[in-house]
Amino acid sequence: MKTATQLKPEPISQTGGIEVKLNMKRANLWTIIIFFLLIYSGSLLYCYVWEEFSAYNVGYFIGSFWRGYIWQMLLLAFAANILTGYLFLYFYNRRQTKTIRFDSSWSGVGYYSTRPLPLKWYRLFLLFPGIILGILPFLHGFCTGNKTVYAFGIFSLACSVGDVMLYWKLRPFDDEDLYQAGGKAFEGTVIRRNYAK
Fold first, then answer.
1. What is the pTM of this model?
2. Three-state DSSP state, 5
3. What does the pLDDT look like over 125-153, one tens digit per residue?
4. Spacing of C-alpha 28 from chain mean position
5. Beta strand 17-21 with 187-191: parallel, antiparallel or unpaired?
6. Strand order in the sheet with 117-118
7. Phi/psi class of residue 19: alpha, beta or left (left: φ > 0; alpha: ψ in -120 to 50)?
8. Pairwise CA distance, residues 160 & 130, whole Å
9. How are beta strands 117-118 and 17-21 bridged, if at all?
10. What are phi and psi of 23, to 5 degrees?
11. Closest Cα to residue 193, out of 11, 17, 20?
């Protein structure tokens, strides 16, 4: 007499882990779209407050200012974003550099921790560069009329789009759950710790 065999559950569901990863084609497309929206809307806003607001002046501002700053600011914002992530992990892991790894691939570049992090700290790790390097310089440059700081804030906001998308994907999980980063950027496993909910 044959007995029905039960299918074995996947190894991830046995340990209580749920794999979370971004679709990098979609994330990169959104990064490019938001980057151009920030440049054009930021230029309109800056010209409206600090310059003469006309079609010619806005076009001249976009053509002359952004052409001179685009590569320098992009590289500077990108490097500052990566360095901020490393410093956050360095101080969170109590200055142990052995637990921090570097990943670079076509989908993303950055540092990750080999130790699982509580989601409340990992969420802070995702939002910290966007707030410190993006929103604050953007507001400071806009309020003071400093074009260079304003441009740096716009580029830093564009560099943190992938982090914000991963933050949005991690919303349903509890703060006490653990996030174990995988070997690739924007990919990892959430280990459930709060089983009462």
1. 0.81
2. coil
3. 999 999 999 999 999 999 998 988 999 99
4. 11
5. antiparallel
6. 17-21, 187-191, 178-181, 117-118
7. beta
8. 5
9. unpaired
10. -80, 105
11. 17
